[in-house]
Write a structure and sequence with these properties.
about 350 residues, alpha/beta, 2 domains, 5-stranded mixed beta sheet
Length: about 350
């Protein structure tokens, strides 16, 4: 009797192990099938700034090309506010399944320096591709008498407190560049944050601010039409776009204001390797496509593609450099005070 019971128990355990093994195999196959079918629905694309700004304009170009190169459409979701952190909070907290990605700029590295944030973005997100690198442009209305940086400085010294400069968020690169310029020039400029480059530009045209520090895409058409004039760019070299080729760098004019921005595509950390691979491969082909490149150049920007590995290293290098700059210049403490 005991022998029969033991045999029956052994048989049951054997059958159970086969069933469990089969379930495990089915789950593995299911996971593999899911990855193989990716993407099978539209991909949400978070833009952490308002409509009409530089990041939004680039996102709209990606939206046009996505069905061809990613196999699904992108659904643009603008989440402006808190210098990009509202959008990056949502991106960082999204499920890492490849159906939520977003655009990021240098502010991604700057914001954690100013105080506690919900996520440490450089580690909560993983880079997929760099699209462009760009300089900030310092621009004024055409009616202003300032023809160069020295003219503006002279006016600011004679009329302290009168000049306000617009940018796309407290602690962002435009804000940092503006504060750095004011410190080096020994003048006072009152900063005014906006939720997008389009809003800052409208305020400049309306006379509510006298200067802006924005990316070239945000003000290209107004500069081209003559409504605005650019006085300086913050890069190491002049911009190659015909609209900006005559605009000198700050460095050329004797001011050590050198800040480069970039736009990258990032995803929540922990993407399945197969999903990440499909995104990386599709984005690389898309960004390097001649038609996409031409569209980017029409915005006044230049393609500067980097893959995930190189981009991760760039994030680390730029984070170290920016931390050093804002600390040594005292800008960090000033911005911390302005954010309170």
């Amino acid at each position: 009797m005991q022998k029969k019971t033991l045999i029956s128990l052994t048989a049951c355990l054997f059958i159970l192990s086969i069933m469990l093994g089969g379930c495990s195999t089915m789950q593995d196959k299911s996971a593999g099938t899911t990855a193989n079918k990716y993407p099978n629905k539209p991909i949400t694309f978070i833009v952490p700034f308002g409509i009409g700004g530089g990041t939004d304009l680039v996102a709209r170009l990606l939206e046009k090309s996505a069905p061809t190169y990613l196999g699904q459409s992108l659904v643009i979701v603008n989440k402006p506010g808190a210098s990009g952190t509202l959008g990056w909070n949502e991106l960082s907290g999204a499920k890492p399944d490849g159906y939520t990605i977003g655009i990021a700029g240098t502010e991604l590295l700057l914001q954690p320096l100013y105080g506690p944030s919900k996520y440490h973005y450089p580690t909560a997100l993983e880079p997929l591709a760099q699209i462009v690198s760009l300089s900030m442009v310092m621009a004024v209305k055409k009616e202003q008498p300032w023809q160069n940086v020295d003219d503006l400085i002279a006016y600011a010294r004679e009329h302290p407190g009168e000049i306000k400069f617009g940018h796309t968020g407290v602690g962002g690169l435009g804000h940092v560049a503006g504060e750095a310029f004011a410190k080096i020039a020994n003048i006072h400029l009152e900063q005014v944050p906006f939720q997008s480059g389009a809003e800052a530009t409208a305020s400049l045209l309306g006379g509510h601010v006298q200067v802006v520090f924005l990316n070239p895409a945000s003000i290209k058409e107004h500069t081209k039409s003559g409504m605005l004039k650019a006085l300086a760019v913050s890069g190491k070299q002049r911009l190659t776009d015909p609209v900006y080729t005559t605009v000198p760098t700050f460095k050329e004019q004797g001011f050590d204001v050198v800040y480069d921005n970039w736009y990258t595509i990032a995803a929540p950390k922990g993407l399945p390797p197969e999903v990440k691979g499909k995104l990386v491969d599709g984005l690389q082909v898309m960004i390097n496509n001649p038609e996409f490149k031409k569209s980017i150049e029409q915005l006044g920007l230049q393609i500067s593609y980097l893959g995930p590995k190189e981009l991760k290293e760039k994030w680390l290098d730029d984070s170290e450099q920016l931390t050093k700059v804002v600390q040594e210049t005292g800008i960090l403490d000033k911005i911390k005070g302005q954010k309170k």
